[in-house]
Design goal:
Layout lengths: L1 E3 L20 H9 L6 E3 L16 E13 L11 E13 L2 E5 L7 H8 L1 H7 L8 H7 L7 E5 L18 E5 H7 L12 H5 L5 E4 L13 E2 L6 E5 L8 E6 L5 E4 L7 H5 L13 H17 L3 E4 L4 H4 L9
Parallel strand pairs: 5-6, 6-7, 7-8, 12-13
Antiparallel strand pairs: 1-2, 3-4, 4-5, 9-10, 10-11, 11-12
Helix pairs in contact: 2-3
The structure holds zinc ion.
Zinc ion (ZN) binds next to loops.
Amino acid sequence: MKSVEAPRPRSRSPGDCVGRSPVRTLFAVAAVLGACAPPITVPDAPLVARTERAAREVELCVLTQEAYARPLWQGVAQATGDSWTYAIASIAVKHPAGLLIIDPAFGRSIGDDLHRAGPFAMSLFGTEQTKTPLVKVLEQARLDPADVRYAVVTHAHWDHTGALGDLPNARVLIARSELAWVAPFTRYFDHGVMPHHLKRAKDRLFAFDFKGPPIDGFEASFDVFGDGAVIAVPMPGHTPGSTAFLVRGSGGITWLFSGDTTWTSRGVELPAHKFLRAVDVDLPVLSSSIGRLNALLLHRSDVKVVPAHDGAALSGLPQCGSP
Ligand SMILES: [Zn+2]
């Protein structure tokens, strides 16, 4: 095991995780909004060794619903002047059993969702003007929303579930631990979740457990189609039931859709937590998940990690509807 300090100021005392340097003022804000990040431990190579398995290769593509440039420091706890292409997108997986969508992001009701969530939410997320509902992006890519037979979510936050109600023929698969986390939520916008998104699909909702064998160093798995094409693995921390999806693409490449474990590829590379850590439910557990992603990056060239909101990482995949 290699222990990596998350990139944060060194000077710490009770009640002060950020030091005194003016350069670190931004981190002071993060500390107020969130919490000091625990160190990230990176597993050694054997822990992320490839699990040999027969797996069906599938085509996949990206359905971008929002993208714009932001300063990278807003996405990762690093004092940097670099830019970040912030994106909200879904992934379409073309499986013989039917079209599967990972993280159906914005529903037709995105405008209503934002307005009813209130002015604070809108100050953070903006308005519907910059956002395109998933069904519209599907149609632009000449894909019929009625043909979507499966939907899976990396976690239950509002920007990963908004279109569940717009996919009437989709079985919705979600980790049982995530469903248990959201069960007590009753407010319109509660802990980052809009419970009505899941309620709209309640008759099509199926909870799964990670009862499958260890794979690629993950201690357990759930094989969505039973053929190795799409495998869910636990990626807890951002939320209790956060899930990553290993998708076997062509040419021996496995794509790992890691949800909001980090918002950026930089967070995987450093490794580092987000700037805004108040959005994360369990920081020590999240540290372990981020460390695992970093180890995959170091030791598994056949695995491409794609954080949900990193536009540059998403651009490494085909875009749905593009020739
Ligand atoms: Zn998100």
